[in-house]
Design a protein that fits this description.
The complex is a heterodimer of chains A (285) and B (76). Chain A is of the alpha/beta class and 285 residues long. In chain A, 45% of the residues lie in helices and 13% in strands. Chain A contains 11 helices and 8 strands. An 8-stranded mixed β-sheet of chain A has the order 3-2-1-4-5-6-7-8, sandwiched between helices. In chain A, helix 5 links the parallel strand 5 and strand 6 (136-141). The radius of gyration of chain A is 20 Å and the shape is globular. Chain B starts with a helix and ends in a 6-residue tail after the last helix. In chain B, helix 1 packs across helix 3 (47-54). Chain B is globular, with a radius of gyration of 12 Å. By secondary structure, chain B is mostly helical. Classes of the chains: A alpha/beta (285), B mainly alpha (76). The A-B interface holds A 142, 148-150, 152, 177, 179-182, 184, 187-189, 191-193, 195-196, 198-200, 202-203, 208-209, 213-214, 217-218, 221-226, 229, 255 and B 1, 3-4, 6-8, 10-15, 17-19, 22, 25-28, 32-33, 35-37, 39-45, 47, 70-73.
Chain lengths: 285, 76
């Protein structure tokens, strides 16, 4: 599939980062959102990542400006009519994503692939909103997109082999490593990470070790995690972790039930790094 | 710290058990699961590689022991 123009719907942090990786690989991008200020943030995010690279002497300012010229912005769907490939990154709400997908279905050419960056919803359920479910797949990026190589490429119930191949090929063309998986709650990474976090929480609750001791053990070479599990939960956001665990619990059973502690933390506004406190406190800065 | 080994064994066993379930359900192959955890979670010890390193028999016995003591989440 010859991709000449990529549409990114949802210009938040993820949208801006995806715009960076796509334009860095030379693809023209149209960033679409519902408000000008969201577009401004998305473009600013992309620019910020480029500026970091320039400061690190990985590219010249000239090169940066050439790449940034590849990003255009829009509040409507007209500029997406000739896009070959759409990546949707709007908030995690099924009704919202279905509405966006039906709008894309109407606006985009019939051959365009409609990929969703959803981490928590069913790709198949989103695909029900369009007349071309075989052209819908999940394309799940990891945070921060500019640095994390993995893309989970999710096959929906009606996704065609051709679509899967095209999504994987684009992922590789923008410097990512695709891993294919089924449309199952949590796909691969979120499900296994939650299993790990839940076990760590149980060990703490049983009094075996404190959270700081557990996290400290987990980053030693013999365990080899990049960061402790409690710290990771704080970084991702405890409210998000809770949401993912509930989805996993509904899909797989009570072994994924969020621990009471998580509910207590949320109730007391301890959402993690973003609120200055979660499992740990993050000091005044 | 005596509990250190137990805690790490339990956390990794929980991931191994969940990874084996995911593979059995057809979510992805063992290699794909390990690749995803390496690149998406930055785990140096990915579930199937870790289980192979521990040794198949030891891993089975450990999972069975944990299932007996801590519950069905370790049962594969």
């Amino acid at each position: 599939m010859d991709i000449k123009k990529i549409g990114i719907v949802g210009a938040g942090v993820m949208g801006g980062e995806i715009a960076f990786v796509a334009t860095q690989a030379g693809f023209p991008v149209v960033l679409k959102d519902i408000e000008r200020r969201f577009l401004d943030v998305g473009v600013a995010n992309a620019r910020q990542i480029y500026e970091f690279k320039v400061r690190r002497r990985r590219m010249s300012e000239d090169e940066m400006e050439q790449k940034l010229k590849l990003i255009s912005v829009t509040l409507g769907y007209d500029e997406l009519a000739d896009a070959d490939f759409i990546i949707e990154a709007v908030p995690e709400n099924l009704d919202l994503k279905r509405r966006v997908f039906s709008e894309l279905d109407a606006a985009c050419s019939p051959g365009a692939i409609l990929a969703t960056n959803t981490s928590a919803l069913s790709v198949s359920a989103i695909a029900e909103a369009v007349s071309r479910p075989e052209r819908v797949a999940g394309m799940h990026f990891f945070n921060p997109v500019s640095m994390m190589r993995l893309v989970e490429v999710v096959r929906g119930a009606r996704t065609s082999d051709e679509t899967m191949s095209s999504v994987c090929a684009l992922a590789e063309a923008i410097g990512k490593s695709p891993v294919r998986c089924a449309d199952s709650a949590g796909f691969i990474v979120n499900r296994l990470l939650c299993a790990a976090m839940l076990e760590a929480a149980r060990c703490e609750r049983e009094g075996l070790m404190s959270r700081a001791e557990i996290d400290s053990a987990l980053v030693k070479p013999d365990a080899g995690l990049p960061v402790g599990l409690f710290k990771m939960a704080d970084q991702l956001g405890i409210d998000l972790i809770h949401k993912v665990m509930r989805i996993l619990q509904d899909a797989f059973g009570d072994r994924f039930a969020p621990p009471e502690e998580v509910e207590r933390l949320i109730a007391s506004g301890r959402l993690g790094v973003k609120s200055g406190k979660g499992f740990y406190d993050y000091g005044k800065s | 710290m005596e509990n250190r080994e137990l805690v790490l064994n339990r956390i990794f066993a929980a991931v191994v058990a969940e990874a084996e379930r995911a593979a059995a359900e057809g979510v992805a192959s063992p290699q794909e699961i390990d690749d995803a955890m390496r690149m998406g979670a930055l785990f140096k010890k990915t579930p199937f590689a870790y289980a192979a390193e521990v040794g198949e028999e030891t891993m089975r016995a450990r999972l069975a022991g944990f299932a007996e003591k801590y519950g069905d989440r370790f049962k594969v």
